[in-house]
Amino acid sequence: MEETKKTTATAKKTALKETAKDTAKKAVEAAAPAAKAVKEAAAPAAKAVKEAAAPAAKAVKKEAAKAKTAVKKAAPKKVTVKKEVETTVSVQFSGKSYTTQELVAIAKDVWKYDLKQKASDFKSVELYVKPEENQAYYVINGEHTGSFFI
Fold it and tell me: What's this model's pTM, rounded to 2 decimal places?
């Protein structure tokens, strides 16, 4: 009798498995047309999105190409820099000799010590040398004028 119970239990299990398989198969078969319908319905929408995005993608590619061309055009070109000729001017008279650097240094000293101004405020100087008078006339920062003996 025990064998009959085991056989019956096994048969029930097998029957349940087959019923579950059949149910699953029927569910898949029933869902297949719905999945196909969803796929077919989504296809035109996906195509429309792709077609709508195509002009924007083309525009982006075109702008990227323009930017790349602009970068190539803006690349630095060789620039030749003319070297300034080093010059030294000396004024010689009555056994004396002054270079422009020495005269500017004297003008700075006049600015700092005689006119009691800050050295950092000394921006520009124009010098006029008159050897026959032993004088150098100056215009500092375009407004302060005077002279000093050389």
Answer: 0.45
